[in-house]
Amino acid sequence: MSSAPVIAYLCTTFPKTTEQFIQREVSSLRALGVNVRVYSLWGGGGDFEGLQVVTFPKWKLVALLWVIPLTALRHSRVFGEMLRGVFKRRPPSWLNFWENMLGAGFAAIYAGHFRREQPALVHAAWGGAPATAAWLLRRLDGYAYGVACHAYDLYQDGGDWWLREKLEEAAFVHTSTAMGRCTLIVRGVEPGKIHAILSGLATLPAFKPLRTPRATLRLLCVARLVPKKGLDHQLRIYAALKAAGVSFEARIAGDGPLRGALETLARALGVAGEVRFLGHRPQAEIAEHLAWADVMLHTGVIAADGDRDGLPNVIPEAMAAGVLVITSPVAATTEAITDGVTGRVLSPEEPVRWVEALAALRDDDAQAGRFRAAARVWVEENFDARRNSGRLAALFAGAMKP
């Protein structure tokens, strides 16, 4: 058993197949010698690379029937602050309300466990339930804590209900993009405590040769089938390609609530024969699809509820493998894709421009080669998991409670 100080690493669900970046972060931190103990507040659990994940059994929430009155008696000031906070403003959504209540319930029930374990630091991997748990554990027993804020925490339905209070007392705030950092500053978080640290790849894939000729373009999208991915726009881009006589095959890897509607739209647009919906695929299989693809398309938009992407990890993964990337200008994708340098940046509402760009990437080997080389350099310089996790580990060390 490691003698290094324990970092209590709080997740909503761990491991989760659609959150590979969290798994990579945990793996990289452990490889650096950080003694991470992972707690999963909702689902997940089991063994992860030899690490037993501590799961929160939901039946324990029954204990709140007596834990809440005891907590109110022992920590009346903290309990009063929570009640005032609950009633002074409406939560952005019922989902976010219950996420925060889950975090508070976990902290109340596991407070005794943490008093026995005495972690040197509590780190919330998300700004929702995990950050609420970390905030309340500090209020109850004084633990130092850090918080990671992702696009979901900042933008969906206007952002997390309790985020400002949770970040005020955090030792540091970790976000993965410059966009996230700017948003946090605008919302009043002290700039000096915000650290933009990308995720990363533990090992870089082989850089495949440019496929020539590319008479029939091989197009790939890896995304959850949800509104912020703008996949209706992507299907219209495919229809415009077909109308322009550009031969292509397209694969969409991912699943979600919009799958039925998107398959119906593909048939209506006449591209069902060219577009394959693969459903959710394991990470190892995604690598096979990257080896097949010429170009990755990302047509992200700002959804009606405000949700949007940060920098989806699949974009640097594609760049590392030698897959060309065309992305929308929404969110933080432009922190990796500079138009005309590491790829193309185009509005998904202008399908004709995508057709022109894809035709150029099909026909111009020199342009494709320049983009691919510059993209690989960007990944090598910015997306190294060990280096980036080292920065996070340094934040942990600086914030640890003696």
**Major pleated sheet:** 8 strands, mixed
CATH topology name of the largest domain, in short, is Rossmann fold
Binned strand content:
15-25%
**Widest beta sheet: strand line-up:** 3-4-2-1-5-6-7-8
H/E topology pattern: EHEEEHHHEHEHHEHEEHEHEHEHEEHHH
Helix content class: 40-55%
Rg of Cα set: 23 Å
Tally of discrete structural domains:
2
The CATH homologous superfamily of the largest domain: Glycogen Phosphorylase B
* Number of separate helices: 15
What is the rounded distance between the termini?
20 Å
Average pLDDT, all residues? 91
Overall 3D shape: elongated
Describe this structure in words.
This protein starts with 5 loop residues before the first strand and ends with a helix. The longest helix is centred in the first third of the chain and has 24 residues, at 94-117. The strands form two sheets. The protein has an eight-stranded mixed sheet with strand order 3-4-2-1-5-6-7-8, sandwiched between helices. It has a six-stranded parallel sheet with strand order 11-10-9-12-13-14, sandwiched between helices. It folds into two domains: 6-200 and 384-399, Glycogen Phosphorylase B (Rossmann fold, 3-Layer(aba) Sandwich); 217-382, Glycogen Phosphorylase B (Rossmann fold, 3-Layer(aba) Sandwich), CATH 3.40.50. It is built from 15 helices and 14 strands. It is α/β, with parallel strands linked by helices and 402 residues long. α5 (129-141) links the parallel β5 and β6. It has helices spanning 20-31, 64-74, 76-88, 94-117, 129-141, 151-155, 163-168, 178-186, 231-243, 259-268, 283-292, 314-321, 351-363, 365-382, 385-399; strands at residues 6-11, 35-40, 46-48, 51-55, 121-124, 145-149, 172-175, 194-196, 217-222, 248-253, 275-279, 295-298, 324-327, 344-345.
